[in-house]
Design goal:
By secondary structure, this protein is an alpha/beta fold. It is built from 11 helices and 13 strands. It folds into 2 domains: 152 residues, Nucleotidyltransferase, domain 5 (2-Layer Sandwich), CATH 3.30.420.40; 147 residues, 3-Layer(aba) Sandwich (Hexokinase, domain 1).
């Protein structure tokens, strides 16, 4: 980020945002230099996040409008503002078009319109990855064994609307140690079944889709497809009407309260396949810093995940099982990882 500041005595504000299709969260970030500066939002992770506001995107006509509103109500329009916005869409071109909103804008024009000193856009999973080194024990839950090695690669995957994947690698810039995020589309790699039931599930989904990726199982709609597959495999039933269809949230609820055996089998298969996929990430990156599970689905059933074969499937990698046995696995429970990651990004580059 270019942060060549004009000659002025004005205070610098680090403005951060987590922009989704429904809500946008805006806040201000600063590095903690003294424990007396710590607020309830810092959780002693080296960054203080304050002035958090959440807005419904549908109530604004553009991103510029909502950010300008925040700047006005916080009375920071006459200060130097360095901004980092995490957004759930590609950010590698100047023109950004949001997937689930009719918002389209130029990054350069937005910076000028808001009179920002610096502006960076990062993908939402880049933000989540950047947050990981800052997480305290209160913001994550360890699943199984393994020990994190400081300064080693970290991987993250997140079943949600889709299956997000990102990796962190340590780098040194001007003698300063930093984290660099390598993002990609790892959720779309080919699904590899390892037993007969998973093979049958893959065959069923292949009847619906031309290609079966891990995202076809490890996502909200993936849960729904696995349920439909297991319902057919176990009971010979096919869902033909929308009234017969169970949504992902309903499947997890029924699995957790024990009211539906097919839902329980669905959630068990989901956890086990997630273990295999996470273990694949650990092999690809040699993720001795750990593999983290993000997204809105898994934090709802952490105890169920612990009781499943998730960790066994993570570790079982043949001759190279020693790599996955050493790598720890965690579920991220921090409610605002996007804001925390955007804060880490803007402060690292400031």
């Amino acid at each position: 980020m270019n942060t060549n500041l004009p000659s002025t005595e004005k205070r610098i504000i680090n403005l951060i945002a987590d922009i989704g299709g429904t809500n946008i969260r805006l806040a201000q970030a600063s590095a903690i230099t003294d424990n007396s500066d710590i607020t309830d939002n810092s959780d002693r992770n080296g960054i203080d996040i304050t002035e958090i506001e959440t807005y419904q995107c549908e109530k604004f006509t553009s991103l510029s409008e909502v950010v300008a509103h925040y700047i006005e109500i916080k009375s920071i329009d006459d200060l130097i503002i360095n901004a980092c916005f995490a957004i759930a869409c590609p950010v590698d071109t100047d023109l950004i078009s949001m997937t689930n909103l009719p918002w389209q804008f130029s990054q350069k024009e937005l910076k000028q319109a808001l009179k920002l000193n610096a502006l960076s856009f990062i993908n939402d999973y880049t933000a989540i990855a950047m947050a990981i080194p800052l997480l305290s024990d209160n913001q994550k839950v360890k699943i199984g064994g393994g020990t994190s090695v400081a300064g080693k690669p970290i991987s993250v995957c997140g079943p949600g609307t889709g299956l997000g994947v990102a990796n962190l690698v340590p780098i040194t810039v001007a003698e300063n140690k930093q984290w660099h995020c390598i993002s990609g589309e790892g959720g779309h790699i080919d699904f590899a079944p390892i037993n007969e039931t998973e093979q049958q599930v893959m065959n069923f989904i292949h009847g619906l889709r031309k290609r079966v990726s891990y995202e076809q199982l490890l996502s909200g709609y993936g849960l729904e497809q696995v349920y439909q597959a297991l319902l057919f495999i176990n009971e010979g039933k096919k869902i033909t009407t929308i009234n017969d269809k169970l949504l992902a949230k309903e499947i997890t609820t029924k699995a957790l309260d024990g009211t539906c055996s097919i839902c329980e089998k669905t959630l068990t298969l989901f956890c086990n396949v997630l273990g295999s996929f996470a273990g694949n990430l650990a092999l690809i990156m040699n993720s001795q810093g750990g593999v983290y599970i993000a997204g809105g689905i898994v934090p709802r059933f952490i105890d169920y995940l612990k009781s499943s074969d998730f960790r066994a499937r993570f570790e079982t990698k043949g001759r190279l099982s020693s790599i996955t046995e050493q790598a720890p696995t965690y579920v991220i429970t921090e409610e605002q990882p996007g804001l925390l990651g955007a804060a880490a990004f803007v402060l690292q580059d400031s």
